[in-house]
Design brief:
alpha/beta; Rossmann fold; globular; about 55% helix; 5-stranded parallel sheet; 5 strands; 2 domains; Arc Repressor Mutant, subunit A
Length: about 230
């Protein structure tokens, strides 16, 4: 399974992208170029996604590491201003921010040096529902509410969502919440009760129970991992 290194501080987008393509690729999200360089030193990736244009001195170590691994680079930037260091690298592509998950999937697959497989194909209702989930994952989300928002029936959305993502709407929302909780556990000192509230769980015990179901580890154990 191809691996994609996704450098982003936008954890909801990273979470939604990870869950959407998990049947096709393994996403390794990191929140800094330094962490990305370490990941590249430890193993190969088919693609590096950088979610914003950084300064030359920050980008150069990443580009050297990507070049050494012979992997492509996709830059998602708010404007077309690209660091000079990127101009010196062949094989990188640009996408404009903000970007939908479906557009990110398509651009990511197009940026692979060698296409690993056909990317997930998301129809309009599912793509729009995923965007609603990405922006409101921490709030109450039901199939009915999402179906109303994207103007289809609940049964149609439920069927298409499972067909196109491999997950029910409820499972998809839970997975996105767990992915964001992972990042909060690793990157912040927030207490479990605060994390539970931030990602949409009832309380800390509820988050802990679901977290164990999906990761086979308790949140505290996950946070203490090296």
């Amino acid at each position: 399974m191809p691996r994609i290194l996704f450098i982003t501080a936008d954890w909801p987008t990273g979470a939604a992208f990870t869950v959407t393509v998990e049947r096709f690729a393994r996403i390794v999200p990191v929140d800094s170029i330094h962490a990305a360089v370490q990941e590249l030193a430890e193993g190969p990736f088919g693609l590096v996604i950088l979610d914003q244009a950084h300064e030359d001195d920050d980008v150069r170590p990443l580009l050297r590491a990507a070049r050494a691994r012979r992997c492509s680079v996709l830059v998602i930037a708010e404007s077309v201003r690209i660091p000079h260091a990127l101009d010196q690298l062949g094989g990188w592509r640009l996408a404009q921010w903000p970007i939908t998950i479906q557009a990110l999937v398509e651009r990511a697959w197009n940026a692979f040096a060698a296409h690993p497989s056909q990317p997930p194909q998301l129809g309009r209702p599912v793509s729009q529902a995923i965007e609603k989930i990405r922006l409101n994952y921490h709030g109450p989300l039901t199939v009915g509410a999402l179906a109303d928002a994207v103007h289809v029936s609940p049964s149609h959305l439920a069927h298409q969502f499972r067909s196109e993502t491999g997950l029910s709407v409820k499972d998809y929302v839970t997975r996105v919440r767990i992915e964001v909780a992972r990042r909060l556990l690793l990157e912040t000192d927030a207490k479990l009760e605060s994390i539970a509230d931030a990602v949409g769980f009832c309380d800390a015990p509820h988050l802990s129970r679901v977290f164990v179901q999906h990761t086979r580890r308790r949140p505290g154990e996950y946070r203490r991992q090296p």
